[in-house]
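Q: What structure does this chain adopt?
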Amino acid sequence: MQSGAGSNSASTTQTLNKANLSATQQESGPSKTQTSGSGQQEKVLITGDDILIEYVDRLMNQLKVMGDETLLQDQWKKAIEKFITHYVWHSQDRRKVDGPMIGIIERLEGRLHEMQERRRRLIKYLYKKEGKLDEFEEGFHQSISKKSTIIKKFSSIQLEDLLRTSTKNVAQEVVSSLIPPQGGLGVLAQVEKFCQVNNISSPTTTTTAASNQ
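A:
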């Protein structure tokens, strides 16, 4: 996926701060600290890519909860299809690779993996640029874990609001496939609401790919 999801730092930072979370809208390389009055306070840097990765991961998990693609409304299918097939992606749609029987969840997973790999490559480049490549693996996993702890505190609606303000250009075009730019519930929030109304409950434990990569 092309870059651009990490833009509009002021809007995202303000929204994050309202939730009493320490976050800045820029990509994170080797760990940095910010000195406060009583000592050092580490900054956790959140990007639009991080938010979108969490959003797509939650959408995948919610679709797994539904268990049957026939329950998906046509507008949701069209929105997800538009997201998956957008020209911004570098890797092929898994349907073209694995055949027409591949499901929406697996196709979304392909896009999720592309975003995760792009994030990993970018952060690795920043470590290399600072001559700290030997610290990358440990630093990367610690960084992703801290980001995940913060991002998971947001509701799906909050994630959608953040994505409206933290992305622009091509990235905004991709995001708008799943989230109405002018407001209203996005696909994830609508699917969650549908599951609640129809008593389709989540499993007791859910493995989140976004927090591990």
